[in-house]
What we know:
With 123 residues, this protein is mainly α. The protein has four helices and no strands. The chain has helices at residues 2-21, 26-53, 64-88, 94-122. It is rod-shaped, with a radius of gyration of 28 Å.
Amino acid sequence: MPRASSSGDDLRASLEARRHLGPEYEDSLVEGFLEKVDQEIDKRVDDRLAARARGESPGVRPSLDAGQRLALAIISLGLGVPGTIAVSYTGLSESLLGFILVLMWVGIISVNVTFTVARRRRS
């Protein structure tokens, strides 16, 4: 992360300058450092806005959506796999068994697709 290192270097340089120049220059040094930090923040925001305008994702961060997607995946598999096993041992005819399995998995896939489409429309 060169940006964080750059800010750290700027802070160390400001502190070193304060030691050499004395406390009477402290306000100027702090203002200069804060101005550099403010410029870096503006640059990062501009980069993210430009990436979003180009349709790029500036980076995925864990979010509520990520947790919801994980929960949906776990629930889908948690219901689908045991459901498939349970239906398989019912002794139904092969055609009825196949119909029930297809219906069950189409329902699970439909819920997942609906969630994904709705999430993409929101963002």
